[in-house]
Amino acid sequence: MENQVVEFSFFDEINKKANIICDDKSKLNPKSERWRFTPIREYNALTFSNLQNTNINLDSIQSYRFKNVILFVIMNGKIDLQLSDSIPNGVQIENLNKMAQNYSGRIKSSFTKISNIQENYFSAENITQFNNGLFINVESNIVIEKPIQLLNIQTETNSFPRFLINGEENSQFNIIEQYINLTKSESKSNSVVEISLQNGSNLNHICLQNGTKSHWNFYSLAVNQYKNSLFTSSIISLSGKRIINDINCNLIEEGVSTDISGLYLIDNNSHCDNHTKINHIAPFTYSNENFKGIISGEASGVFNGLIKVLPDAQKINSSLTNRNLLLSNDSKMNSNPQLEIYADDVKCSHGSTIGQIDGEALFYMQSRGISKSNATKILVKGFADEILNKIKIKSIIDYIEPKIEQLMRNS
Amino acid sequence: MLNIKNLHASIEEKKILKGINLIVNPGELHVIMGPNGAGKSTLASVLTGKDKFNIDNGEILFDGQIINELPPEERACKGMFMSFQYPIAIPGVNNMYFLKEALNSQKKYRGETQLDSIDFLGEMKTKLKYVGLEESFIHRPVNDGFSGGEKKRNEILQMITLEPKLSILDETDSGLDIDALKIISEGINNFRNKDRSFILITHYQRMLDYLKPDFVHVMIQGEIVKSGDKSLALELENKGYSWILNEKVETSQS
Ligand SMILES: Nc1ncnc2c1ncn2[C@@H]1O[C@H](COP(=O)(O)OP(=O)(O)OP(=O)(O)O)[C@@H](O)[C@H]1O
Ligand SMILES: [Mg+2]
């Protein structure tokens, strides 16, 4: 009984802080720097209040299963154990309320703290709205070979998935986070993923975003990395009306490595916004970030990447690249990689490009007998390959590739 | 094989080719020499169908067919090939994949059976020897990070793989070291037969010692102003181009 009172105040406290942020509508000011190139004004006019629930055939869900995975099905933010595989040894998967009861220390205190609600309105909004949420813990020294597929199915117009993932010391695991939207009307999802990687743990993460033509996707990923941990991530945005990704990695202790890549494929009149921040807090930390975009039709994109190196973070190595391929004259991209460095003995590089298909390369290929359309296909595919090659799982590459071809047809 | 009739071409209103006439028969090797900016590479690009150049007048006949409007890929499929003066690097596209795709596109066009990856790799291994490249080169992105000479060798590798009827080699010799010049020349010589024709664009006589051309033409300011046999190349190497210009002025005055 006493325990429950404690838990109530635990969530209540967190909620209170989040509510204050959500009440501050200046956070969604279309004129603010954060929203300069993203049509948040349009969002502010929407309500997503008609809570419609699309009926789906539960058997069809298995068709989203990738080969050789441990599947967990999350319906509108709530895990459905009936549709899921059994939980492997050395892994705990439970409701976030349960986590608050059963865990203490770093795990519990990192909940809602890894993702910075002061800097990210939607992270705060998720706190005030999420219903169940999922806590995933991989015990120390446990190696899970098969990827854990977190299949998020959205059938309601408004959905707030939330995850807290903890890799204990020297654990090794793979997570495929996938978002499927089956709603038929204008819909929104606001997902927050917090990851904490303890000493020597190694997580390979893939996020696949696949929304409908009328779906607003807000996605916040925040990672705290401790000594010698390794985080590899690929954020793949395949479709959606508006995709807004907020990615934050904190390299807290020595020896940490972070490798994040992104591929966004946008067409028609959709828009994709990637805001990323890599925080080098400790010395001897390494980060590599490479985001690539293919933009066609009247679509537009924003990339805003920041590498921040704090004064103690000497001897770090960091690289940030954003490359964009515009397939049409009406597509637009705004790219802004930035460095903010407060240490003096560091190696940092950043760069960005926005360009169309190289006409000289096209002619070169044609002059060897390859048709213009096929040459274009090969060049676009070649552009994306740098990111796809990091995803070692063939069934996922097979899932992404048709989207690239579709994009070319729609250019 | 190739018949160029009074060809005029321009780029952005700037006239570059001003009435080129040239006939290349099967098995012949023609050399085009001429000062920088004369229009030699432009001629090669126009022949292979680069659309940023405009054909203002004249005709290009290939195997008796007017190809002025034909897209580059169809010209290639009909048997035309250019070794680029400055080969393009294509990061992200694997060299072998590219070449296999090219060969199979051509085979498909001609209604021939296409090669699978294994057969193709086998064929590549022998061909690499002809141009003196290590196998690792076909597994790298096309020309990406290749040295100047390696790019030229890769062009010739493409030529002997695609087996064109007409090969236009634009300054293939520049950038090659002394040994490579010999290796590549031998490669080209082995590739020559009574059906295959060549147009070789060069500034130097040295490759001609190996290749024994049938004709040498001099192009100046978009026109072929003089043609002769291989002794003309030697003469040019000794005397430069100015005497030809003077000769031309004299003939036009008389
Ligand atoms: N895109 C372009 N825009 C304007 N002028 C061009 C363009 N491409 C070529 N030219 C001009 O056309 C002329 C002929 O160029 P071309 O490359 O054919 O010469 P070249 O005979 O091959 O010379 P080199 O021996 O130096 O290779 C040059 O004066 C060049 O500047
Ligand atoms: Mg030239």
Task: Describe it.
- The complex is a heterodimer of chains A (411) and B (254).
- Chain A is of the alpha/beta class and 411 residues long.
- Chain A has a domain of 252 residues.
- In chain A, strands 2-1-5-8-10-12-14-16-18-20 form a ten-stranded mixed sheet, covered by helices on one side. In chain A, strands 3, 4, 6, 7, 9, 11, 13, 15, 17 and 19 form a ten-stranded mixed sheet that branches.
- In chain A, helix 6 packs across helix 7 and helix 7 packs antiparallel against helix 8.
- The longest helix of chain A is centred in the N-terminal third of the chain and has 22 residues.
- Chain B has one domain: Rossmann fold (3-Layer(aba) Sandwich), CATH 3.40.50.300.
- The mean pLDDT of chain B is 92.
- The chains are: A alpha/beta (411), B alpha/beta (254).
- The structure holds adenosine-5'-triphosphate and magnesium ion.
- The site of magnesium ion (MG) has 4 residues of chain B, from helix 1.
- The site of magnesium ion has 4 residues of chain B, from helix 1.
Total separate domains of chain B: 1
**Which shape of chain A, going by the Cα principal axes?**
globular
Q: SSE order of chain B, as H and E?
A: EEEHEEHEEHHEHEHEHEEHH
Helix content of chain A: 10-25%
Our measurement of the CA-to-CA distance between the termini of chain B, rounded to an integer number of angstroms, reads 35 Å
Q: What's the total count of β strands of chain A?
A: 20
Bound molecule kinds, no repeats: adenosine-5'-triphosphate, magnesium ion
Beta-strand percentage of chain B?
25-35%
| Side-by-side strand order of the widest sheet of chain A | 2-1-5-8-10-12-14-16-18-20
Radius of gyration of CA atoms of chain A, rounded to a whole number: 21 Å
Overall spatial form of chain B = globular
Structural class of chain A: alpha/beta
In the predicted model, the low-confidence regions of chain A spanning at least 5 consecutive residues are none
CATH topology of chain B: Rossmann fold
The second-level CATH architecture of chain B is 3-Layer(aba) Sandwich
Largest sheet of chain A: 10 strands, mixed
- How many beta-strand runs of chain B? 12
Biggest chain pair interface? A-B, 23 and 31 residues
Low-confidence stretches of chain B: none
% residues in beta strands of chain A: 35-45%
